[in-house]
Amino acid sequence: MTTNLKSREDSVMKTPSFDIEKIREEFPTLHQEVHGKPLVYLDNAATTQKPRAVIEKLHHYYTWDNANIHRGVHTLSERSTQEYEAAREKIRQFIHAKKTSEIIFTRGTTESINLVAQTYGREHLQAGDEIIISHMEHHSNIVPWQILAEQSGAQLKVVPITDQGELDLEAYQKLFSKRTKLVSMVYVSNSLGTVNPIKQVIEFAHQAGVPVLVDGAQAVNHLSIDVQDLDADFFAFSGHKLFGPTGIGVLYGKEQLLEKMPPYQGGGDMIRQVSFEKTTYNDLPYKFEAGTPHIAGAIGLGAAIDYLQEIGMSHLATYERDLLDYASKAFEQLPDLKIIGQAKDKTSVISFVLKDIHPHDIGTILDREGVAVRAGHHCTMPLMQRFQVPATVRASFAFYNTFEEIDKLVEAVKKVQEVFTS
Predict the structure, then answer these.
(1) Predicted confidence (pLDDT) per residue in 401-415, tens digit
(2) Which residues are catalytic?
(3) Dihedral of the CA atoms 91, 96, 99, 100 (nearest 10)?
(4) Domain span at 104
(5) Which of 147-156, 272-281, 323-332 has the lowest mean pLDDT?
(6) Does 421 reside within a domain?
(7) In this structure, are 90 and 154 located in the same domain?
(8) Are 138 and 229 within one domain?
(9) What average pLDDT does the segment 273-299 reach?
C-alpha cells in the first residue's frame, strides 16, 4: 500500500529545503510516548505544535527583554517594542498586505471576527439588512453575526453546500439583494478541509458593493495568502494554527475601512489624548489594540513566520497534498468507513464516521494507540446536522507528519473495528 507514495516522500525528503527528518527534530512535542506508544499527532486543525525557533524566541523574550511596549524609554522596553513591531511587519509581508497599519493584533480569529461585527457591523447594519455566511462556518463565524443581528435587527442568510461539501456558488449569488451589507466566509473548512473559491466569492460580492470578511484560520498554514490579490476587505487568523503561540491572532483590514470604524475597546495605548470631557483615539493600528497586548505572542508568531518562510510554503503545500492523497486512498479501502467531505479542492483534513461506532469511542481507542485526533462536532454543529451525523472523527495533517504515521492511523482504525465486531 505504501510503495508508490512512499517514493514521493523520499523525493520530497531529498529536497534541500525540505528534510522531513530534520523538520521533525525541530518539534519537541512529537518525540514522546502516549500510553506506551509513540505519539502520532493528527489534531493540527485544532492547534499546531511549535518549533524550537518559536519556543526559544519566547524563552529569550521572557528571560532578557520582558517589558511593556511603546510607553517606555528604557532599553528593555525599546527592545520589546522593536521586536513587537518587527513581528507586525513580518505578518504584513506574509499575507502581502499593503501597510503595517492594516495589521491589528488580537487574541485570535474569534476576537477578530467579533471586532468587525461590533465595530463595522454596528455602524453599517440596521433592521432588515442581510449578512451572508455559509453552511460550513465555524461557530466563531456564526455566533458574532447572530449577536449583531439581535442588536441591529439584521438577518443571516446561509449559503448551502453540496453533498461533497462544496460551496454552492449559484445559490450564493442568488442570496444577494439590495439589503445585503456584508459577507463573512471561511476560506478553508475546519471540519471538511474544503478550500472555498474565496476569490470568486469576493469578486461577486464586490460587484454588488458588499465587503467581505474572510475567516482564514485554517488557510494560513496550508496556502500562500495574498490579501491584495484576493481583494479581501477583512482577513482573520490565529497564531496557534500557524505554529505560533496561543492567545495571539491577527485582523487584516483595508485601511479605508479601519479608519472609519470606532474602537472595539477602550484603555491604554489606543488613545491620543484623554480628558474627562473627551477622548481622541490613536492612529491605526493602535486604535484597536487597547491595553498591554500579548507581546510575547506577537513576537513568537513572528518567529513562526520566519521558520515557515525558511522552509517555503510551496514545499509544505506539496508535501501535505501527498499526505492527504495517501490517507484518502488508504481510508477508501476500509469497510464501513465514510469520509464526510469529498470536495475536489481540499487541504489535509479527513473527517470520517464508522458504521455503528460513536466518534468519541473511536477517538478514545485511537488515543490508546498513541494517535491523537479530534472527535466531536468541531464547533460546526450546523454542518453536522447538514450531513445528519452527531459528530465525526477528524484527522488533520501538518508538514511534520509522515506517511508512516498515516499507516499507524489506519491500523488503529482497524483495531477500533475489531474491538466493536468481536
Answers:
(1) 999 999 999 999 999
(2) 379
(3) 0
(4) 55-309
(5) 272-281
(6) no
(7) yes
(8) yes
(9) 95
On whether residue 419 sits in a domain, the answer given is: no
